[in-house]
Amino acid sequence: MAVSQLIGASIKRREDPELVTGSGDFVDDRSQTALAYLYVVRSTQAHARIDAIETSRAKEASGVLAIWTGKDLMSEFQSPLPVTTSFVPEKKYPNHYPIASDRVRYVGEPVAVVVASSKAAAEDAAERLDIRYQPLPPVLDIEAALKKDAPVLHDDIGSNIAYDVKRTGGDIEAAFRDADVRIKQRIIQQRLIPVAVEGRGVVADYKKFAKTLTVTSSTQIPHFVKIWLGVILGIPESNVRVIAPDVGGGFGSKIRVYPEEILVALASRRLDRPVKWTEDRNENMKATHHGRSQIWDVEIAAKRDGRLLGVRATQYLDLGGYCSQFGTFQAIALLIAQGPYKLPAFDGRGVGVYTNRTPTDAYRGAGRPEATHLIERVMDLVAQEIGMDPVEVRRKNFIAPSEQPFTNLLGLTYDSGDYRITLDKVLELVDYPKFRKEQAEARKRGKYLGIGFCTYLEICGLGPSVATTAAAGIGFWGMSVVNLHFTGKATVIIGSSPHGQGHETTFAQIVANELGLPLEDIDVVHGDTAIGPMGMDTYGSRSASVDGTAVYLSSVKVREKARKIAAHLLEAAEADIVYEDGKAFVKGTPSKAVTIQEITGAAFQPHRLPPDMEGGMEATTFFNPPNFVWPFGAHVAVVEIDGETGATRVVRYVAVDDCGTRINPMVVDGQLHGGIAQGIGQALFEEALYDETGQLRTGTLVDYMIPTAPDLPSFETAATVTPSPTNPLGVKGIGEAGTIASSVAVINAIVDALSPFGVKDVDMPATPEKIWHLMNRNGGTKR
Amino acid sequence: MRRRVAVTINGAKHEHEVEPRLLLVQYIRELAGLTGTHVGCDTSNCGACTVEVDGHSVKSCTIFAVQADGAEITTIEGLAKGSTLHPLQQAFWDEHGLQCGFCTPGMIMAAKQLLERNPNPTEREIRVGLEGNLCRCTGYHNIVKAIRCRTQGAGRRFLTEGEVRWRFHN
User: Which residues of A745-762 are buried (b: 16+ CB within 10 A; e: fewer)?
Assistant: First the structure.
C-alpha cells in the first residue's frame, strides 16, 4: 500500500501512555534540591495608590528567605512587559511592569513577592504583610470607561481610550440608502475566563557564575518567553533557556510573557537558588488573562429578498487594567466580520478601553468568534425580519466558488472554499425538513425546540510575515529541523509548542510519509529553546499549516539529499533514482535498492559521499507562508428549552468542517469536540462577573461554571476536504474552529426556539433566568 | 504540632510526620512523590486529584492527610500492571479520551469507580457520573466513548503505530 496513506490516518497518540499512567511531566511535578517557593501577594483593590507596604513582621516569619515589593524590584527591569506594537496604530499603552510599585489597576495585580523554604511558609508570611492602599474610584466596565468624567487609569495617556480606529470598505451610505430593511442590534461578548485545568507554574534556576538562566514554565510560547526574560532582566538571550514541559491546556491563556515568569527568574537570580511558583485556582481566575469582554453595536442594511447590503459595527473592547501582549488582537474581528458572504459595504470601528479589571488577551478564537457571532447573528436577524429561512439567506449571500480566491472588503484574500458544500452536508445530516415538522408538533405540546446555524469562515495559520508585520508588528514563520542519526533514526525539532494537540504524533506522520521511515523511528521534540533554532510557538491554529509545512519541507530536503547519495552509491544518474517507501533504487530495478538507513550511514562516512558533498543528514526550514489559511464549515445546534424553568439543553450538535487535508482525523475531531464545548460554555454558562468595587465575584470554579459532562451532548462531526493552496500539504487550521462556530449556533437556536415569544436576540450566557424572563415578559403571551 | 501518618499507597507503605493542615493530595504528591495525582482547583470542583481511599473515590484535596491515617490508597500510578495498562487507561488511549492529559488521571480514577458501581451505564449515566471531573480539552465526547467502549467491548477505531508499519511497509 502506498505510503502516502499515512497522511489522513487516524493513528493513536504516542503522547498518551505517559499521560494515562500519571507519568506526565508538568511544571508542578518537578522538584529539585534547594528549591525555594515564591508566593505572589496580589492587590485586593481594583484601583488604588499603594501608600506603604510594611514587611518587617512578615520577614520574621519562619522559613522566609526574602520579601520584595515593587519598589524593591523596579530597578531590575530593563524593559516593561512586551506589547505587540501596531495592530491598531493609534494605540496608546502604558509601560506595564511585572509588579506594581505605586498604583494598582486590577484585583490580582502583583504588589509583593514572598520567597520561603516552603509554599506554606511563604503563604503564612504573606498574611503578616501590612499593605496600606489609598483607594481610587474604579472604572468597572466599558461604558463607565468611556464617560467624559471617568477616572483615568493611566495619567500619561490622559483618557481610558487605548485606540479608536476605523476599518471600512465599500460604500456604506449607499448601502443604507438602498436598503429595504434596517436593523439595529447590540451584541454583548461577555468576559470569559479561559480555565485551563492546569494553572500556570514556573521554576527558575539562575547560575551565578555561568550567568545562565533556565526557566521551566507552563507556557504556549517558550521562545517568546526566552527573548523577553533576556530583554527585561538584561541577560544575553544565548544564556537563557526556557522549557515548556507537559502543559495542561492553554486556550490562549498561556500565550503571553507573564509577570510571574520574570519575578520567579529574578528571585532565583537574587537568592542564588532555584525558585518555584505555582498559581492556585483563585489566582488563576484573577491573574491569568481573560478573554472577549466586548460590546458590539451593529446596524444592518439588507434587501427584502435577503441580500445583505451593508453592516456598520463598532467593537468596544475592554483591555482591562493594562494592554496585554496580544490584547488588541481581538480587534482582528473587524477585518473578517464579512465572513463567507458577498457583503457590499462594511463600516467598522474599533475602540479599546482600559478598565479596572484583569487584562484581556487571546482566548480560543480571539476575534474570530466575535466576528462570526456578528455576521451569523446578522444572517438570522435579516431572516427573521423578512420572514425567510435562515439557510436561504445564507445561500443568497455566499461567495461563489468561481470568485475564489476572493479578496474581502478589508483586503484579505481567502484561499479557497465552496461554502455551500459544508452547509449541504450538515443539512442532510441533521434532516432539516424533518426537524421543522418536529419543532411545530413540539410547540403544540408546550415544548420549545430550536435550530441554529453557523456557516463560518475563519482566518488562521499565522502567518504570512509581511501581513502579520503590518497587522501585529511581528513577522511569523514555521521552523523545523529534521535530523537523521547514524542508524537512520530521526529527531524532528519543531518550532511550535503543543499543549494537548498531539504534535508528536501528527508531525511524525508527515516525516514518515515523506521519508518512508517507520513511525517509531521518528522522535518529535519541542518546547525547549536549547534544542534548536527559534520557533514561533503555538496559537492561532497555526501549527499544522505553518510548522507542519516546515516539517514537510525539511523532510523533502532530506529526501533529496538521500537521492543524491543513493545515485552515488548505485553509480547512477540522480535523475534515474526513484525514492519510494524508505528505499532508493535505479528506475526499473527495485530489487537493488539502498535503504534510507544505509544511505544515512553513508552520509556520516565522508569517503562514501560524492566528493563535493558535506556529511550529515539534516535539514532546517524556516517557512514563510504566502497567505493565511481559511477553514470553513457549517455547524448546527438543536436546543430544547424548558418552558417552566427556561433551562436550555443542547440536544444535538452537528458540525461539518473543511480544514483542508486532515493529517490525523482523530486529532482533528478531538480539537473540534473541545472547541465546540467551549463555545457552548460561552453561550450558556460562563461569565466573569465583578461587583461594584471591582472584586471578581466568579473567582472559583463554584461560581464560574465551565461545562461539565452532563451539560453536553455527544457531537456529530463530518468533513469535506478542500486542500489549501497556501501550503504543499493542503492543510488549514482546526484548533479554534469549534469555538468560533458553536456559541452563535447555540444562540441562533435559542432565538429560533423562542420565536413564538417574539424574541429576536438573547445575551450570552443564555441562563435559565434570562430565558424565563424573555418567555414571560409579556405575561407569557406568545406572538 | 506534627502528627504521624501511615498509609499504604499502591501497595507500598509510607509513614511521615506531617502538619495537620497538610492535604492528602499534597501528601501524595510531595511526600510520597507520586505526581500523577494533579491539583486543578482549591474547591473540590475539578476532580483532577481523584484517588481511591479504602475503595472509595475521593477528591484528595478535600481531606487532610491525617484523616487518611491507616488507609489503603490507590492512585493513577497503581492501575497499570507493569507495562500493561489498566483497561480504562487503554480505553482512554484507544478512543483519544485525552488531549493535554492534566485531568486524565482523576478522570480515569472517577471512571473506575463509576464502573464498579454501575458496570453497564448508559451514556447519560456516564455523563452524570463524571459531573465532578472537569475537562477543558475534549468536550467529554471521547471520554464518554472510552468508558462506553470499555463496557460494551466495542472494537478499536484508531490505528497503533505498529499497525501502520505493518499496513504501509509490508
Answer: bbbbbbbbbbbebebebb
Looking at residue A748, what is its pLDDT? Answer: 98
* Claim to verify: residue A55 and residue A102 sit in the same structural domain: yes
Q: Which of A381, A419, A186, A240 is nearest to A301 (CA)?
A: A381
Name the nearest CA neighbour of A94 among A260, A327, A250.
Answer: A327
Q: Which residue has the higher pLDDT, A314 or B170?
A: A314
Range of the domain at A273: 32-136+200-247+254-287
A195 touches chain B (CB under 8 A): yes
Domain total of chain A: 3
A632 and A618 co-located in one domain? no
Chain A residues near residue B157 by CB distance under 8 angstroms: 10, 666
With beta carbons under 8 A apart, name residues in chain A contacting B35.
Answer: 22, 26, 28-29
| Low-confidence residues of chain A: pLDDT under 50 | 1-3
The closest alpha carbon to A413, from A623, A629, A737, belongs to A629
Residue type, A674: G
CB pair distance less than 8 Å for B98 and A710: no
User: In chain B, what is the straight-line distance between the N-terminal and C-terminal CA atoms, in Å?
Assistant: 67
Say whether pLDDT at B170 is over 50: no
**Residues A270 and A399 placed together within one structural domain of the fold:** no
- Which residues of chain A from 500 to 529 reach within 8 Å of chain B, CB to CB? 500-502, 512, 516, 518-520
pLDDT at B1 (0 to 100): 84
Query: What is the homologous superfamily of the domain B87-152 according to CATH?
Result: [2Fe-2S]-binding domain (1.10.150.120)
pLDDT of residue A90: 65
Residues A235 and A117 in one domain: yes
If asked whether residues A567 and A654 sit together in one domain, one would say no
Residue with cell 461563489: A400
B96 Cα to chain A: minimum distance (Å):
7
| A671 CA: distance to closest CA in chain B (Å) | 7
Q: Is the minimum CB–CB distance between A651 and chain B shorter than 8 Å?
A: no
DSSP bridge partners of A483: A491, A618
Domain B3-78, CATH 3.40.50.300 — does that match? no
First to last CA, chain A: 63
In tens, the pLDDT along A734-767 reads 999 999 999 999 999 999 999 999 999 999 999 9
Partner residue facing B93 (CB), from A16, A500, A512: A16
Report the residue of chain A nearest B82, measured CA to CA.
Answer: A21
Does the distance separating the beta carbons of A12 and B93 come in below 8 Å? yes
- C-alpha to C-alpha distances, A142 to A285, A318, A362, A490, B103, nearest whole angstrom: 20, 6, 18, 53, 35
- Tell me the CATH number at A102: 3.90.1170.50
pLDDT of residue A783: 56
Q: ipTM of this model? A: 0.96
Q: Nearest chain A residue to B124 by CA: give it.
A: A710
Q: What is the pLDDT of residue A316?
A: 98
pLDDT of A120: 95
Q: Are A11 and A664 in contact (CB under 8 A)?
A: yes
Cell of A639: 436546543
User: Angle B90-B94-B95 (CA atoms, 0-180°, nearest 5)?
Assistant: 120
Q: In 10 A of CB A569, how many CB atoms?
A: 17
Residues of A in contact with B143 (CB under 8 A): 709
pLDDT at B163: 77
Model confidence, pTM: 0.97
- A581/B169 CB distance under 8 A: yes
Nearest CA to B112 out of B92, B94, B139 is that of: B92
Alpha helix stretches (DSSP H) within chain B: 24-26, 87-94, 104-117, 123-129, 141-152, 161-169
Q: What are phi and psi of B127, to 5 degrees?
A: -60, -45
- Please check whether residues A664 and A571 belong to one and the same domain: no
CB A256, CB A289: distance < 8 Å: yes
Residue A523: alpha-carbon gap to chain centroid: 26
CATH of the domain at A677: 3.30.365.10
**How is chain B split into domains, by residue range?**
3-78, 87-152
